[in-house]
Amino acid sequence: MTRTSITPSGITPSGITPSDDAAPAAEGRPFSQILDRLRGAGLRPTRQRMALAKLLFDGGDRHLTAEMLHADAQSANVRVSLATVYNTLHQFHRAGLLREIVVDSQRTYFDTNMSDHHHFYFDETGELSDIPGDQVEVAALPPVPDGMAVSRVDVVVRVRPADA
Amino acid sequence: MTRTSITPSGITPSGITPSDDAAPAAEGRPFSQILDRLRGAGLRPTRQRMALAKLLFDGGDRHLTAEMLHADAQSANVRVSLATVYNTLHQFHRAGLLREIVVDSQRTYFDTNMSDHHHFYFDETGELSDIPGDQVEVAALPPVPDGMAVSRVDVVVRVRPADA
DNA sequence: CATCAGATTAAAATAATTCTAAACTTGACA
DNA sequence: TGTCAAGTTTAGAATTATTTTAATCTGATG
Fold this sequence. Notes:
The structure is a homodimer. Chain A is α+β, with helices and mostly antiparallel strands. The first copy, chain A, has a domain of about 45 residues. Chain A contains 4 helices and 7 strands, in the order ααβααββββββ.
């Protein structure tokens, strides 16, 4: 239970409606948390960033692509262009709010789980699931080339239906 | 020294010329090795597959993209279309002659080193280098989801200039 | 050496992502 | 509160890596 996600109880799924947007936010919790998060990251809390942040961080750990988040936004009646979704994902990533996962050399996934962990990748379906950091041990890393520093170690366990 | 690559001594860089192609191949070594390799994989030894195989396997361990191999072919005066390079790389991969590496979600790399090993990835330059399998230890893999089998475990150590 | 499945190719098509330039918003300040 | 610069959003065009298409070749076999 070390996650930092925000999971309020009785708030409209996507909160922000086209008409009313400086919504009062009941006791002022979920909105201001996201707001602080954006401010803290030096990102102006715009309507679309707020909405995307809510979609991203309100639902537990998620692995998604730009297209997925865009679709999510559509279903939640949040109007954002795909370009903005791409921009926002990258900004959030640079700001340390999201992690980029490379498992498929054709699409880019982002992970809302920023803790130290690795991934299962289901080749068939293209789905991802987390492996807690403490369940994989990468021992004995070789000496890093001169003048270089490790920026990250990624472990991807590729799985497929046991069978053939 | 457990590699299986073929490194002949005094043969013209790419061997195959547009005009003469059923070349005698001196004592019949490098050609027939590649030939056997293709035949063994159930791939018809065509002019372009032979040439690409030579480029791929004659030069030690290599990490390359389709575009790179295509460029290689051009400089070696081997005429192959880019589409054929793509096809060939995938066929070789399916045939177990090449390994696909996912480190960059924008291009696909292939590795001629089929032994068990992992990679350093230089974020800045997009270059790759091998880490011998025995220099990384992935211990304590978590239980694989039901009905699934591990098809591969990839470890990528991302590095960048030590500094700022 | 005729045949044909399999291979190659140029060119068009696709998919994911980025860029562009114009049209907004936002926050700051007078 | 009105104004404005700087930062954002957006539709659509552009780019990049890769795949598909359809036509044309080529290697293996009889």
